[in-house]
Amino acid sequence: MKEHGKWPVSQQIQSFSLFLVLTTALLGMVATLMFSLSMEQENMNRNLMNSAQVLAQSPQVVDVLAGRRGNEVLTTYLDSTTSRVQDIDAIVVADREGIIRYSPDTSYVGTVYPNYQSLSVLHGETAQVDTGAGISQVEHRALASVFDQDGTLLGFVSVGIDAIRFHQTLMDMIFWFLIFTALAAGLA
Known about the structure:
- The protein is of the alpha+beta class.
- 50% of the residues lie in helices and 19% in strands.
- It is built from four helices and five strands.
- Helix 1 packs antiparallel against helix 4.
- The longest helix has 48 residues, at 9-56.
- The two termini are 35 Å apart.
- 24% of the residues are buried.
């Protein structure tokens, strides 16, 4: 006699197969999301670092921090540079003592860069990428040391984006991943 509530073997196999397909698809999508997030963060870091290193080697930055030129040269150069770049929220140039020599917001010029004493670019490292206190808020930033022609450390350049915007980009990727996952699961 047939028992009620028991599924036929073919239906059990079909259910198990569907479970395996969905589980495999979900694991693949999660792996893809993790890889995509990692690559996005790596690309942002590389872009910030490249920008910081290029600016740290520019003659205008070196000459101003070495005292060979006035701040107006730096202001003209960096204001025109930042007006054409949309992926950067702030560029700051500061000397070894953390005194800001350039900031897009001129009210910060002459003030001390937050927590400058803990920056590794002032203690032997030539570059660093981190999330920390910037001139007006928490920033995801790249910093590069500025050296004179004789190798003397003059200061640093900080190139950053607002940490909220940085995290929003990552959250947008997760949001779209969840939408596509829900659609894929619905179709399955």
